[in-house]
Amino acid sequence: MTQSDKMKRREFLTMGSSLGLLGVAAAATGGAVFKYLMPVVTYGTPKKFKIPKSDLPDVGDELLFSDQKVVLRRHSDTEMAALSLVCTHLGCTVNVVETGFQCPCHGSQYDIKGTVVGGPAPQSLAWLTVKPLPGNYLEIDTGSRLKENSYFKV
Ligand code: FES
């Protein structure tokens, strides 16, 4: 083997290694682009959930559903409110406080009916649809938004 043949062989191996590395880089980049373009599907909490009527609170009391971010408040013997606990500013979960609700993120405050009384929230907390189900159950739809003071009858 001549010196010239050795150089050609070395060049050939160098070029082959470079092409191999380039292929690996292209495959990694292609994989990253493919993953970026694929839709990310998340399955959040279902929008509707049901509760037995026997769980409803007494007048003036409330029942909190932390996972669903909902509170039920009994207004009278026959009327209840279902309010979303999702802050209308940027979506944090508001805390139930003595005067109503308070958002821990930017300080929005809502009264007991969910009406904004302070902070950056642009609108009141959502009043949610509640409908009776067979077997003495109620279904609460967290994806709905009724006008304020839309009490449901019990
Ligand atoms: S998210 Fe509630 S005040 Fe900003």
Break the fold down into its secondary structure elements and pairings.
Blueprint: H1 3-37, E1 48-52, E2 62-65, E3 70-74, E4 79-84, E5 95-97, E6 100-102, E7 109-110, E8 116-118, E9 127-133, E10 137-146, E11 152-153
The structure holds FE2/S2 (inorganic) cluster.
FE2/S2 (inorganic) cluster is lined by residues 87, 89-92, 103, 105-108, 119-121.
Give an overview in words.
With 154 residues, the chain is of the alpha+beta class. The chain folds into two domains: 1-41; 48-153, 3-layer Sandwich (Rieske Iron-sulfur Protein). The protein has one helix and eleven strands. The chain has one helix at residues 3-37, and strands spanning 48-52, 62-65, 70-74, 79-84, 95-97, 100-102, 109-110, 116-118, 127-133, 137-146, 152-153. The strands form three sheets. A four-stranded antiparallel beta sheet has the order 2-3-4-11, with no helix packed on it. Strands 5-6-7-8 form a four-stranded antiparallel beta sheet, with no helix packed on it. It has a three-stranded antiparallel beta sheet with strand order 1-10-9, with no helix packed on it. A hairpin with a 4-residue loop joins strand 2 (62-65) and strand 3 (70-74). The longest helix is centred in the N-terminal third of the chain and has 35 residues, at 3-37. FE2/S2 (inorganic) cluster binds at residues 87, 89-92, 103, 105-108, 119-121.
- Morphology: elongated
DSSP strand content: 25-35%
Radius of gyration: 30 Å
Please tell me the overall pLDDT. 86
Number of strands: 11
Biggest sheet features? 4 strands, antiparallel
